Amino acid sequence: MSFKRRQFLLFLGAAAGTTAVGVRGQGQSLVVSQTAQAASPPGGFLPLQGPLPYEGIGLADVKQLDYYSRYQIQDDLVLPQGYTYDVIASWGDPLGDSRVGYNNDYLSFVPTGPDEGYLTVNFEYISADTWSKTLEPVTGKVLPFAEVAAALEAQDGEVNAFELPDDDPLKAQIREISKEALLDQGLGVISVRRDTDGRWVRTNSDADRRISGISGLEDDRYLRVTGPAAAVFIKQTGQGYMDSLGAFVIGSFGNCAGGTTPWGTALSAEENFQDQVPEAVYADGTAFSPREKAFDDGIDGQGNVLGLSCNKYGWIVEVDPSNPDDFGTKHSWLGRYRHEAVGIRVEAGSPLAFYSGCDRRGGHVYKFVSSNPVTNPQDKANSQLLADGMLYAAKFNPDGSGTWIPLTMDTAVDPVLPSTVVGGMVTLPNRPEGGFIKVEDDAVAQAMKQQYGTLGDLYEGSDLEKQGAILIDAHFAASAAGSTTTARPEDTMVAPDGTLFIAFTSGLPGGDGGPDTAIFQGPNGEEEYEYGWIMKLMEDSNDPAAMSFQWEMFAAGGEPAEGGLGFSNPDNLEFDAKGNLWMVTDMSTSAHNQPVPARINEQGETLSQKELLGIFGNNAIWQIPTTGDRAGSAYLFGYGPMECEMTGPYFTPDNTTLFLSAQHPGEVNGQRQAMAAETRSFAMQTTDGVPFIQAREVPIGSNWPGKNPNDPPKPSVVAVRRLDGEPLS
């Protein structure tokens, strides 16, 4: 495949296979690319070489064979020449009256002055094995892991602790572990400032605090609810489980991506809540019993022993970081599903438009439109607009057009047909039993259309309660209404001109369904495409409240020789001040640097894309220009420590700092012992498809961010900056 962009990067004199060296300076790590200066760097930085050849480095094939024959992965946040990072906070550090949580994800920065502000940090989940093994050395807490593990082994790996007698010692032990795990999830507010040396440091203000998965359980820090779901929560009787708390909610967990409003609040997206509580609800919106999600040997089912009501999780949470008494509001008009992000469009004179995706295979893309318009985008009263409006789900057409389907009682039932989906399965509401069913036969979906005329016919209660139940069951209601099943929608980010960018991380089918075969195809027409895409969506007439739109694929992951840009599994998105799109990747941790000695297995079969993921190395940070002659090209800015996911990119208004989260370093192999590493073999190909073998040195486990031998790995928040203090790009 020929280069799509002009060659702009000259490599001079670097030793073959040497990519980066670590240099310590003033207590920080500066990782310097050993390639030479770029003749015309695209974003003010010298793109990293990375383990996989890609067109952005501008190397001819003959040079690629030389430069990429050996590669050394670093257990560090590897950045271009002239850039460094400050570690702001790590798991276990004090925060308010609690501690910094685990697996930090989205970062919101709300300035309070030129060089200070509030970071609001999501804490998504615990990586059970590494978390349990490092909890004591990091926090000093000792939990009964061994005792509970023995009990679980004797009971096929799970225990329904919800129904154990209150005086059962096992119940108390499971409760102790579950509370500690949920404490390490949720959100945190961290006040920061830039010191005279340019470093970002904590200031520990009175606003610093935690909102955890158990807020409200043993204190008065309940979260609140707005919108129609509250009508379901306050009912006195119903078909399913009710926690007697009404519109109060215990905690927030599964907090993945998010957004930041112009009026200074942070939005946190509850994603994989189904790991801790049931997902299924009844037709009246009430919850399935906690017994349906037992506590297991992966430390999932944390809500079981606490009796958490599942219909209260899977929402968007809004928090004002400047208000120390604000512990979060869940806005039910934004829908309950596996939220991955919030794309925010706020324009004076127009309604609010908030976009989000349901991160599952076969998940939908959604838009909330407020009933009333915005007057002043900076007015904190805009939060009240989230309490009234309409939630829509996207229907994409193969011709590049699309429409928004309202999730309301009058919307016709017109289910997604399994035959249109990769993998041939969709999930639809199950009636009359409640919950959902997996449908593989078009006739079953068509029978639902014949039996139920509208979404209102699928749900029960008063009109307000029915609307609440639809929002509580949003994913399955959207499937019943015919919204397009997509390829794991991750981040949704609105560009300054109003264009929505959507990261679709993987086009493979799975247990939740798969993407529409007519919409999601790889560069060569592949219906199953692991590496993902970034889509552009333009509202008709550029109107935030438009009911129709145009869409096109902007970028595709994958190997350059096969039509991709050199990355895999795009996730969080962010724009810099120049309009460049920044993206971090989310490859499955278990695939990182897994050897690929040959592309054909012992049976003579070509490896699948999923089996090839190891060639991409660690999860990484990329810049993709959106305008000019380099629009749509990708440039590697950095990659993360071992077995981690880089998340939460957020720029300061002056573009001199990029805040990032490094989530779950050492998730698979845990604590790196005695700086262990091994050399692995990879069957690679150049950007033009010439095959070669790469010998890659791979650290085993992680010691980041301490980086000393045998340091425990700790998820951490960092501030990336240039050493000269200039804007990053």
From TrEMBL:
Pfam hit, one: PhoX
Residues in the signal sequence: none
Annotated spans, Disordered: 700-729
Superkingdom classification of source: Bacteria
Record-linked PANTHER family: DUF839 DOMAIN-CONTAINING PROTEIN, SLR8030 PROTEIN
Protein known as: DUF839 domain-containing protein
Species of origin: Vasconcelosia minhoensis LEGE 07310
Lineage, top ranks: Bacteria, Bacillati, Cyanobacteriota, Cyanophyceae, Nodosilineales
